[in-house]
Automatic annotation (TrEMBL):
Protein name: Phosphonate ABC transporter ATP-binding protein
Lineage top rank: taxon: Bacteria
UniProt key word Glycoprotein: no
PANTHER family: AMINO ACID IMPORT ATP-BINDING PROTEIN, PHOSPHONATES IMPORT ATP-BINDING PROTEIN PHNC
InterPro entries xref list: AAA+_ATPase (IPR003593), ABC_transporter-like_ATP-bd (IPR003439), ABC_transporter-like_CS (IPR017871), ABC_transpr_PhnC (IPR012693), MetN_ABC_transporter-like (IPR050086), P-loop_NTPase (IPR027417)
GO molecular-function term, one example from the UniProt record: ATP binding
Record NCBIfam families: ABC_phnC
ABC transporter domain sequence ranges: 15-258
Keyword Membrane (UniProt): yes
Transmembrane feature ranges: none
Stored SMART domains: AAA
Entry keyword set: ATP-binding, Cell membrane, Membrane, Nucleotide-binding, Translocase, Transport
Pfam families membership: ABC_tran
Length: 282
C-alpha cells in the first residue's frame, strides 16, 4: 500500500456533519446524523425511499435549513452562510440530479456552459456570449464524457445516459471539489447506469474529487463506492468501507435479513422494483 491513506488523514475533512436533525413539521427526515467525509472519498448513501438521503444531500449545500446540529462543508458552517458566501461555497460543489435538469431546447454545449454561470455572475444568451476560454473548457469536458461530437445538438435529442453525461460535464465546469449526486442513474437502464457510474468514478479519481451519491442499486453501490452509509428512518445505521462488506450486511439497512442466496436475490429484485416504482411516481 502507498502512503495515500496517511496523506488523506492529515487533511481536514471535506464534509463534517454532527448531530444533524431535520424535521419537516412532524416528519423527522434526519435524526442525529453524524458523517465525516475525507478528501477524495467516494461515498454512497443507501436506504429505502423516504430514509433521508436527498434531505442529507440538500443539507450539504444549504438548500434547506437545519433543525439542529452542524453541517460543515469545505471548512464552512453551511447554516451560517447566506447570500454571496453561500453562493461561493455552492460554486465549489457540483450537483447531479436524477432528472438531469438540462435545458432541452439548448445545445449540449450551451447546457455545459451554464455550469460556469456562477463565475460569470449572470445569465448568457447564446454561445457567442461566453468567453472563448470557457467554450474551450466546455468542449474539453464534453470530450472527457465522450460527447464531443454531440456539442451542437439539442440536449433533448440525446438518450438518458448521454443527458446525464452532459450534466456531469456541466458540473465539471465549476471545477468542483465535491460532487453530490442524487440518484443519478435512477432513470437509466442497467447498462447506461454502469457507464455513468464508472465515468463519475474515473473522473473523481483523476481530479481528486470527493463524491457523495445516493443510489438505490445495492450491487452498483458495492462495486462502485469506497464506503457505504446506510440510512433508515433518518438515522445512520451503517457506515463502513465496502471492503469485505457483504450484500447481506447491506440488506440490513433495509431492515431485511436474508438467510439464503435465493432469498437475497429475491429481496434485491423486490427493492429494485420498488425503487423503479418510486421513480415512475416522482
Ligand atoms: N420539503 C419537504 N416537506 C415535507 N416533507 C419532506 C420534504 N422533503 C422530504 N420530506 C420527508 O422527509 C423524509 C425523507 O425524505 P427524502 O426525500 O430525504 O428521502 P429519500 O431517502 O431521498 O427518498 P427517495 O429515495 O424516495 O428519494 C420523507 O418522509 C419525506 O416525505
Amino acid at each position: 500500500m502507498s502512503t495515500e491513506p496517511e496523506k488523506v488523514m492529515n487533511k481536514a475533512s471535506v464534509i463534517e456533519v454532527a448531530g444533524l436533525t431535520k424535521e419537516f413539521g412532524r416528519t423527522v427526515a434526519l435524526h442525529d446524523v453524524a458523517l465525516r467525509v475525507e478528501p477524495g472519498e467516494i461515498v454512497v448513501l443507501l436506504g429505502l425511499s423516504g430514509s433521508g438521503k436527498s434531505t442529507l444531500l440538500r443539507q450539504l449545500v444549504g438548500l434547506e435549513t437545519t433543525t439542529s446540529g452542524s453541517v460543515r462543508v469545505l471548512g464552512e458552517e453551511v447554516s451560517s452562510l447566506g447570500g454571496r458566501r453561500l453562493r461561493a461555497l455552492r460554486s465549489r460543489i457540483g450537483f447531479v440530479f436524477q432528472q438531469f435538469e438540462l435545458v432541452p431546447s439548448l445545445t449540449v454545449l450551451e447546457n455545459v456552459l451554464t455550469g460556469a454561470l456562477a463565475e460569470l455572475h449572470g445569465p448568457r444568451l447564446g454561445l457567442w456570449a461566453y468567453p472563448k476560454r470557457l467554450k474551450l473548457a466546455a468542449l474539453g469536458h464534453l470530450d472527457r464524457v465522450g460527447l464531443l461530437d454531440r456539442a451542437y445538438q439539442r440536449a433533448d435529442t440525446l438518450s438518458g445516459g448521454q443527458q446525464q453525461r452532459v450534466a456531469i460535464a456541466r458540473a465539471l465546469m465549476q471545477n468542483p471539489q465535491i460532487l453530490l449526486a442524487d440518484e443519478p442513474v435512477a432513470s437509466l437502464d442497467p447498462e447506461s447506469s454502469d457507464q455513468v457510474m464508472s465515468l463519475i468514478r474515473e473522473i473523481a479519481m483523476e481530479a481528486g474529487l470527493t463524491v457523495v451519491c445516493s443510489l438505490h442499486q445495492v450491487d452498483l453501490a458495492l462495486s462502485w463506492a469506497d464506503r457505504i452509509v446506510g440510512l433508515r428512518h433518518g438515522e445512520v445505521v451503517l457506515d463502513t468501507s465496502v471492503e469485505g462488506l457483504s450484500k447481506a450486511q447491506v440488506m440490513e439497512v433495509y431492515g431485511r435479513v436474508a438467510t439464503s442466496t435465493s432469498e437475497l436475490e429475491a429481496i434485491t429484485v423486490e427493492l429494485a422494483e420498488s425503487a423503479q416504482q418510486q421513480t415512475v411516481v416522482s
